[in-house]
Specification:
The protein is an all-alpha fold. It has one domain. It is 82% helix and 0% strand. The protein has eleven helices and no strands. It is globular and about 45 Å long. The termini are far apart. One of its GO terms (cellular component) is plasma membrane.
Length: 193
Amino acid sequence: MLRKMYDWVLQWSSTKHAVPALAVLSFAESSFFPIPPDVLLIAMVVAVPTRWFHFALVCSIASVLGGMFGYLLGWQFMDLVGNRIVEFYHFQEQFDKIGGWYQEYNAWAVAAAGFTPLPYKVFTLAAGAFQINFPVFVGASFASRAARFFIVAALLYKFGPPIKVFIERYFNLLSIVFFVLLVLGFVLLKYVF
């Protein structure tokens, strides 16, 4: 199923609607959708390397706007919508821990989620539900999401198509590695913070 979703996302990279699709995907992933925008960003930068900066900027802005939407869902609609999203991903225990992290670390918890493979959508919902400072949330989100997407796009611009071939060839292995990194991210946050 993950591979089918990945292929579906990639098909957008070769259409004239690639940039709007990137914006929609980036927005949706920040609040509820499971596939990260990096997949489409990678394909688009490989296809048109000279637009790497533009693609990373669109991805960053849309992701932060999606994070703001996730914050709104957590703040005003947690009972109606937010809890369903948390339950869908089986993140209730992590959601509760995130609330504690926000109490102690505020912007650092947002930045960690925005840059690492941690599920950013859970952090955006939790930020609203636990009502962390909104300007701090937006600033930390933009700094971390922009850093992530600009680094990915710049590396692809520099190293080009071989990266895409590598991803295609080792997709299953990379999916497992990504999942392990996700789990390790939670473990790291649990024990380091």
